[in-house]
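thought: fold this chain, then report.
action: predict
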Amino acid sequence: MTKSTVLLRSVKDHSVQEIVREIFEYFDCERLIPRGSNVVIKVNLSTPFKENAYASNTSPEILDAVCTVVKERTNRILVGESNGMRYKAEDAFEVSGYYPILRKHDIEPMNFTKDEWVETGDPLIRGWGLPKALLDADVFITLPVLKTHATTVFTGTLKNQFGCYPQHNRILLHPKLDHVIVHINRVLKPRLAIMDAIVGMEGRGPINGKPRELGVVLGSTDPVALDATAMRLVGLDPGESGHIKLAAEQGLGSIEPDDIAIDGPFEECRTQFEPAEKDLPIKMLALISRSRFLTEKLILNPESFYPLRSAAMVFRQVRDFGLGVLGGRKSS
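observation:
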């Protein structure tokens, strides 16, 4: 059996432009991107707020480097993302500094939410159309960020495609989240994934966690192998993430270390991330999301969501203060 390959490079040793070009060349850029093909690049835009963006959203340096290489093969390129639950994709493009890059390369930004939605006929996502631009693409490239995630343990390559569902209320898909993530990856078939781990996120990711500088970029044509390797890189078990395990079981890629060849300084860059804590607010959110009625009334409705979020913040502050006091007494 041929092993899947994951390239790992440190930005201490190479520029982002050099790393991205090497990834494309290693996986045979001419085969990946036939000349004149229709390419869609999916960035990871989780927040429109500047204070979170640099650790939550795909770095502009990686986007610039990817656009540089792809532009040498074709002029038919879109860079896209969908609206978030309470923000427009355009706001996240702006805060991440993408517009000057896209203008430089003469590439169109796309808000998938504004595209025509096409039903795929699959019963798993009946009523959840997908963007026509994605379904019409010859080549799909995904640019995730390495982060922990309170619901899925980890978010990387496979989870980035969840944002391809154009509906802002896609949280309603959470009761079958692992399956819909695997489904969208089977439909879109990412040709190449380049993971931004220059600055990752640990703890309460994918938005409110702690930024962690890793200084690496990873790439692979196997999204499962890339996610599994990234998880091991930060001390997490790929078998604990339901959608990654399911994707491997359904033949979307390799998860076992013996089936993955890593090209790069894995041991040198290896570290330990703080996992996403499933505390009481997260457990309550998981319970609420099982009910469409409660999700619409409590999470999607701003009048109830913001008070609930404030209550969760107060709970965490009181809990952390109490733990600090108890910790201080124990050590005195």
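thought: worth noting. The first helix runs from residue 16 to 26.
final: tokens above.
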